[in-house]
Design a protein that fits this description.
By secondary structure, this protein is α+β, with helices and mostly antiparallel strands. The chain contains six helices and 17 strands. The chain folds into three domains: about 70 residues, Structural Genomics Hypothetical 15.5 Kd Protein In mrcA-pckA Intergenic Region, Chain A (Roll); about 80 residues, Pseudouridine synthase; about 120 residues, Pseudouridine synthase, CATH 3.30.2350.10. Strand 3 and strand 4 form a beta hairpin.
Amino acid sequence: MTKKYVFSVQSLSEPLRLDSFLSKQEEFSSRSQVQNLIKKQQVMVNGELAKTSYQVKNDDEITVLLSDDFSLIIEPEDIPLNIVYEDDDILVVNKPKNMLTHPTNKETTGTLVNALLNKYGYDGLSDLNGVMRPGIVHRLDRNTSGLLMIAKNNKAHDFLTEQIKSKSAKRQYLAVVNGNFEFVEGTINAPIGRHKTKPEKMAVVDDGKPSVTHYKVLESFKGYSFVELTLETGRTHQIRVHMTHMGHSIVNDSLYNKIPFKVKTTEQVLQAYKLKFATLKNNDIIELVIDLDEDIQKVLKYLRSNQK
């Protein structure tokens, strides 16, 4: 079977060799794999076969045909899964911090996908997102804990994806952020794209993708706020970027926030704590809520004791 991947290039600060650009994408395991694909004439740029040395630039469209011969097979690993909900089609897990949702070209072990494959195998998970992301409908950052929907088959994958697109599925987060808000509720509507000079970061940029986050202040402290955040879209690092853009970066987020906090945590104090979706079989509405994770509890305990 052959899979087709299409990459629309945006926000490159400078031209980049084709093999370098593709090797940075999570769908591919190494630069040598990419070079083999190009050599086998399985890579096109703007509809034409391309050379390894081609300089990728903004607005290019790169198409890769990835056959099974070149697919990276992810190894199952015996990693415990915290299953919060399960039926014949859909699974919801509570992903811990310090765990990638799926493998990348740099890390292929210790991820949630490795754990899912150990329990369900490739046959028990959807394959619409390729061999690197079986079952994965949406993702959480490595150090964001919480609820994540998994599709056991392609029909369920499409069903869940449509709920996210139509906004009938509801994903809500909790975070402790720097600063205090003028209004207790509000909406951030600001486009997000790759940072112009720091490719490891996302940012609010004029040519970014439409991105909407709703916030509600649950508790205020001196210089800090405990907030609930609801995603309307699901861009990479969306909450972290929008909060930073507002001047309310998330506590202990070392990528977007350089302000030290007195309580040590596993990176950003952010948790996907509430989820609402419909089941495929009967269209029943499922609402899930989990307890505060250890990091949020520690930070709130400190603030309530010292910062009121």
